[in-house]
């Protein structure tokens, strides 16, 4: 098996050979050549995905690993944390073979058609599995991170970051690897992606508020709460926005709906959420600078109470 340097030395393809969706429903689509140059992408059918579940999990672990690479021993521990009673190395070899041949294969039109996007290398005496970068294997979450970083960089240079933030937000179709929420190997990457999703959302909301595009800001928060009804940061921003427009009843409906969902999971809403809902319900004065609002911390709660 050739080292990943094989891809570094080659000219990058015009389009990725594989596209992976990790935000919302997990999907894999392979590039199929067309007569017009730009390929069409064909999804791996659900039957094929189900029969190759271990291989797909291995792919997910690699995508969650720093620089898309992981040592063989760490990969075995991630896939089979209690592997007593099974031949883990044989199981991994079988799984890797399925991943190479049936999921990460290169198209027939490539010069070296036996190659796969999955590569191995010996590093410090241990076998390491590697995947190539976005040019070869495109992942929506990595694209979102890149766009979010570009937006911040452009803003620091005095440019408008709106189009980069909007492009990033279009990629956000839901939770990162939603079928693997409890998987230990997904947690580090999950925190990074989750944070980026929220930064993009609130940055967009702030830009819309600054430009007095109230409806766009409102719609972003509504859509986010449809996916994450227990997110109290988004909830408080939305009900504040509605209340400031005189739509207190609508704000209360949303607040009570989310608070009930939180309590159904045997949790209790934060004090600031309950206090904000109480003030709206009783028609009390709310003084919040909406454009600068990010999350209501203890200081914001004291301000709300102080004006009572």
Describe the structure.
With 308 residues, the protein is α+β, with helices and mostly antiparallel strands. The chain has two domains: 5-138, no CATH class; 214-308, no CATH class. It has helices at 5-9, 46-51, 53-64, 72-79, 88-103, 140-156, 162-171, 187-210, 214-227, 232-244, 248-264, 271-281, 298-306, and strands spanning 18-21, 27-32, 40-43, 69-71, 119-123, 126-130, 137-139. The strands form two sheets. Strands 3-2-1-7 form a four-stranded mixed sheet. It has a three-stranded antiparallel sheet with strand order 4-6-5. Helix 6 (140-156) packs across helix 8 (187-210), helix 10 packs antiparallel against helix 11 (248-264) and helix 11 runs antiparallel to helix 12 (271-281). The longest helix is centred in the middle third of the chain and has 24 residues, at 187-210. The radius of gyration is 24 Å and the shape is globular.
**How much of the residues is beta strand, in percent?**
5-15%
**What structural class do helix, strand and pairing data support?**
alpha+beta
Spatial gap, N to C terminus: 70 Å
Strand order of the largest sheet: 3-2-1-7
Percent of residues in helical segments?
Answer: 40-55%
GO molecular function, one term: DNA binding
GO biological process, one term: regulation of DNA-templated transcription
Domain Bacterial transcriptional activator: 139-281
InterPro entries: AfsR-DnrI-RedD_regulator, BTAD, Sig_transdc_resp-reg_C-effctor, TPR-like_helical_dom_sf, WH-like_DNA-bd_sf
């Amino acid at each position: 098996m050739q080292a990943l340097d094989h891809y570094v030395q080659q000219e990058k393809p015009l389009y990725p050979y594989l596209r992976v969706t990790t935000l919302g429903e997990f999907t894999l689509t392979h590039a199929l050549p067309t007569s017009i140059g730009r390929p069409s992408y064909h999804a791996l059918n659900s039957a094929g995905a189900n029969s190759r579940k271990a291989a797909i999990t291995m792919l997910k672990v690699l995508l969650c690993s720093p620089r898309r690479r992981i040592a063989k021993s760490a990969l075995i521990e991630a896939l089979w944390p209690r592997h007593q009673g099974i031949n883990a190395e044989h199981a991994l070899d079988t799984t890797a073979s399925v991943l190479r041949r049936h999921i990460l294969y290169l198209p027939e039109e490539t010069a070296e058609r036996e190659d796969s996007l999955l590569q191995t290398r010996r590093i410090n005496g241990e076998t390491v599995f590697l995947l190539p970068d976005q040019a070869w294997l495109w992942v929506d979450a990595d694209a979102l991170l890149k766009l979010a970083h570009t937006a911040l960089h452009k803003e620091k240079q005095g440019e408008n970051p709106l189009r980069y933030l909007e492009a990033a937000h279009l990629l956000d179709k839901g939770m990162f690897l939603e079928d693997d929420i409890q998987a230990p190997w997904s947690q580090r990457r999950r925190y990074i992606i989750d944070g980026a999703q929220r930064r993009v959302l609130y940055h967009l909301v702030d830009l819309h508020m600054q430009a007095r595009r109230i409806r766009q800001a409102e719609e972003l928060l509504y859509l986010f709460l449809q996916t994450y009804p227990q997110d109290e940061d988004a909830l408080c921003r939305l009900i504040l926005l509605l209340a400031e427009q005189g739509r207190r009843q609508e704000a209360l409906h949303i607040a009570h709906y989310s608070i009930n969902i939180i309590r159904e999971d045997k949790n209790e809403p934060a004090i600031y959420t309950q206090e904000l809902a109480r003030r709206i319900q009783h028609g009390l004065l709310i003084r919040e600078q909406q454009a600068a609002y990010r999350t209501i911390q203890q200081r914001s709660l004291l301000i709300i109470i102080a004006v009572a």
